[in-house]
User: Fold this.
Amino acid sequence: MLLSFSASKDDPISGGRHKVLGSKTLAIPPQTSTIASHLPKAMGAAFSVDLAKRLNIEAEMPNDSIVVCNFGDASSNHSTTQGAINSTAWAAYQSIPMPIVYICEDNGIGISTSTPKGWIAANYQYRAGIHYLYCDGLNLLDTYQKAKEAEYIARKLRKPVFLHMRTVRLLGHAGSDAEFVYRKMSEIEANEFQDPLLHSARILLENNMLNAEQIIDIYNNIENRVANVADAAASKPKLATAKQVMASIVPPARKNKHHVEVDDNQRLSLFSHEKHNLSKPQHLAKLLNWALLDLMSEHQNIVMCGEDIGKKGGVYNVTAKLCERFGENRVVNTLLDEQSILGTAIGMAHNGFLPIPEIQFLAYVHNAEDQIRGEAATLPFFSNGQYTNPMVIRIAGGGLSKRLWRPFS
Ligand SMILES: Cc1ncc(C[n+]2csc(CCOP(=O)(O)OP(=O)(O)O)c2C)c(N)n1
Ligand SMILES: [Mg+2]
Assistant:
């Protein structure tokens, strides 16, 4: 973390490009400051874990993995959060495995805006398909116990959990935020008395786990260690040229582990329903459909997701027959939420799939645009090329052109 804070080029995730935190080895994708934008992909990654199991695909994450995703109480109101949690619940409600723990760190405030008292519990306690747990973040033992329970539900039962964790905010939101402008002095003081470090020390003493001297020793040792690491991190070299900074904009080429050879006979049977059409000229939608048939048979890790792409065959029938040929696990009919469709794709890509999400028409991508701009497109840059995040987004656009509509004009 200190390598990242000091923009060192040894920062393990962004290589000194941005103050993001993360680690490829620990499977923590880098996250930018846009609150809630990571929830759709966390939902998608959770969906992909058991999908890999069902499809027998060798994925990046082990089959018993769970996804942990945290955010604040104010962020829980964001439409992106609401969409991702709703999609998680929608899937879990139909018994689709969704091994994810959402941790809502509830300090009762977002910058200067208070969260109404009791709002998080009232809003999340009784959501269909989601287990709600509460823990007091000031109590180490309660937090540990509830975290273990959350893990059990996600890992063993493959069901989603909303872990509501009470926390406190000491000091302002950020360096430039003067808390006294919007908070009473008595509130600020009351909060300062809730220092989690002091609570933890008290709990250790009360339970005879450590004595005061041992606790102070740990405190001093950690303080020294942090100071030493901070000194070392601050003196590390940084990226020096624009070329170095830009080097990870284009992701490195990937090896495709999931390619299989498809021989002529297999291909003929794949296209058997089209045998009378194969030698005739076809319109673009049909050719796209044929290309997808070929691609999905050759690349076992391609999964499509979108509204109505299953049996109906999607917009202009571009996905016709794909569901019949490759099954519902590879042609996934999603709920109606473009942020969730793109998030599902990003999460699947993190786990080794090659997703092809579909947005029904160009007009509907705009409400989900940040999933492309802020998440999918920037990931190689922020992760120094470690997360490559491949996908092909299909959007019907320009279909209602003059050419199609000429008969009516
Ligand atoms: C989409 C978006 N809108 C606004 C902001 C600015 N912003 C940063 S943090 C924050 C409040 C977050 O509060 P909460 O979720 O409760 O987390 P806390 O800081 O209290 O831990 C806001 C509005 C942002 N980063 N992203
Ligand atoms: Mg908060």
Q: What stands out?
A: The two ends are 62 Å apart (CA to CA). Residues 212-234 form the longest helix (23 residues). DSSP finds 16 helices and ten strands in the chain.
